[in-house]
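Cont'd.
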Amino acid sequence: MATVWRSQCAFARLLIGKIAQNPNNSPDLCTKLFQGPISVTSRNYSNYANSPFIERIKEQYEYDIIKNPPEWAYVERLLPFDTIPVVTPKENYPSGWIPPREEAVHLPYFVSRTKNHELPIYLNITYRGMRKITKIKKIEGDIWLLNDTLKAHLKETAGKYVETRVHELGKFIEVKGDYVNVIRNWAHSKGF
Amino acid sequence: MTSVLINAFKRLNLSIRPQVKVISSSYSTAVTTANSLNVTQKEWKYPPLYTKPREVWIENLDTVEEKKLGLFELHPSVYAAMPRIDIIHRNFVWQTKYRWVSWAHTKTRAEVRGGGRKPWPQKGLGRARHGSIRSPLWRGGGVAHGPRSGKTHFFMLPFHLRIHGLTSMLSAKLAQDDLHVVNNLELPTDESNYLADLIENRNWGPSVLIIDDTDIAPRNITVATDSLPHVNIMPVYGLNVYSMLKHDTLVLTLAAAERIEERILHHLNAITTEQQREFKLSQV
């Protein structure tokens, strides 16, 4: 620590010289040494013997320590959340986010929201945009029934047969093609 | 044994409907007499939406015969996750590799003794060109690209794979009926025979891992397990996939089960950018 302080002193003297009046309680930049006019002759502060000793900085403000002040609430407001908060129920959400509905729990299959309360439906683009795979994750319950329902729905909406792939252990379904919006609307209609 | 169990179930089925008392998070008082049963229903911070909570019996350790002290609910996100064997295996590989330093060592051509002189002239003998008898081509020569000692195999598994490994392993244990919840670790004696009998009686298999909330276990169980190499005690913060794989049965205390649940649920629902950062060797 001592070396750092000493080099700071030398640096400070070069840069600010007399102008620095140490406005706050900042580390005392060796102002004691430069009370008078700056001497032209240099002093070698890289030398251990010549460098000043570190002294305790005098406190410039009076303060006392209190526990649980009323202002602490404002500090807490600024602290990051410990965990992602639960959504407060509203009539409508200006962002267009749609909350999950209660009755979805009674279906034989279920798509749970992510921890950020979003639907786990993603588009994976590979082979330089040649292959687009829509992936529905976090499927609980009867995944094969969900696959059949979804396939039928996609055939109806897209007007053609749509290939899907079920990964039961990974709890996801992959749909060949970009059907993110179709599937998202379908999931919202189911209440997920 | 089986008939006793069947009888117990019959009695329970008869009496469970009228006499179930729902207690909210005061499991410590859950004590059964012959015909009454207390079910602990828990208030989770993140209640399960679709999958039902798993119920386990609260058992005792103070008698050799098993007594069921009540029912306890476990969160399905932690104890009923999909048992991903691939993730468990990745955890296993990680745990074996991060502590492995390979000390295999070979000498290069520079380190093998001798070989400084050209064995024969470059030209005129009709023989192959050679500059040293310790070249890797020679018998007794140095090894090219051989193992050099002090090679670490340390790496960090991604954070969520570690979390998912724990949930997979706990769920697999629970699904295979290898996870038991006990009320506390108080034993009546400090003899290891008692614990061995208890494990034999309850069919807990060849090895048992006991997890407690605190890292100071009661004296009796520490003395009893001291001479039993196949029974180990571990605090909650030491719980890992490797040990759970290694031991046949996992015994959690109530407090430990709740603590594991709370920590894993927290990480499943928290912002984990800090934990997902690239691991730096200087960060600890």
